[in-house]
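User: Structure please.
Assistant: Input sequence and predicted structure:
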Amino acid sequence: MAIKKTTAMVQTGPRALEAREFPLPDISDNDALLRVEACGICGSDHEQFNGVLPVPYPIIPGHEPLGIIEAIGDGAARRWGVDVGDRVAVETMLGCQSCRDCYSGSYHLCSTRQIYSYIPVDQPPGLWGAYSQYMYIAPNAVVHKVNPGLPPEIAVMFNPLGAGFRWAVEMPQTRPGDTVLILGPGQRGLASVIACRQVGAGDIIVTGLGADENKLGLAREFGATHTINVDEEDTEQRVREITNGRGADVVVEVTSYATEPVAASLNYARQGGTIVLAGVKGMKEVPGFVSDKVVLKELTIKGAMGVTWSAYDSAIRLIESGSVPIEKMHTHNFALEDAELAIRTLAREIPGEESVHSCLLPCA
């Protein structure tokens, strides 16, 4: 391989990113090296940047990688069904592949799992995140082959769209005709709209702030039947009006930081309904959570930790089909060295900029 080094953005502490050079690792029989075409930016990138998530510095952020196989061992090529030059999406989770959870298919719940971008650079070979021109693909990684003809900034949406399929469809077992309430119109909320529309949900209701007007408009374009501006409307009252007093079959909570929607979700779900909690809150307690409502309404509450193979596969197939204009969700491309700007733009820290889906293009 002619190239011997790569540039990566390294987080050395809260809100501290710097460019560093790393040697490219030698590839053995069971691993691979990825040339990173795109890395998606999501809310957890901002939490990691701010130091809310407990990560072992220094690390290379970036857990939504899409790229081209630069080098691969023969064993890995056989196991994954890919070769040099193929475009792949790399899953976030690295399970041990030898415990009960991994064997049962719940590798995202492996007790010794690792997560790309949360592994320190001093763990060889160091290239554990996609804020980099090249990234290491470990033997226990899960990869998906992706159509090379798609623009990278569109193909990399496999991650948020996969979350939509898992959190809003697979986990609550959403069926045709179900009423789904999605709390939060960010990229994963919008992805949930798309996924629910694909399986034939009935009413799809999306909530957002007054500042989310553009995102709520996108939600309607993607198939939401109703949107609620929580700054101006009473969400519980509107849900009752839309559902004729019954409540939502499925409630998907994907807001960031805010705890109020978690407690309020108990009021929005119908008797016997299902609530999926996927928006992390920085380990804050939830005031006003009345457990008797769970008992009396016999609610099912599920926590969503990441995305698994089937949901990623559904997302990739939908993107490749071109049947949904998901490109309308993509708003910003950033160079690798502008990683901090990308994170701050997503977090609304840049006046006049509104990001829905953004990504880094490290090798552009």
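Residues 158-170 form the longest helix (13 residues).
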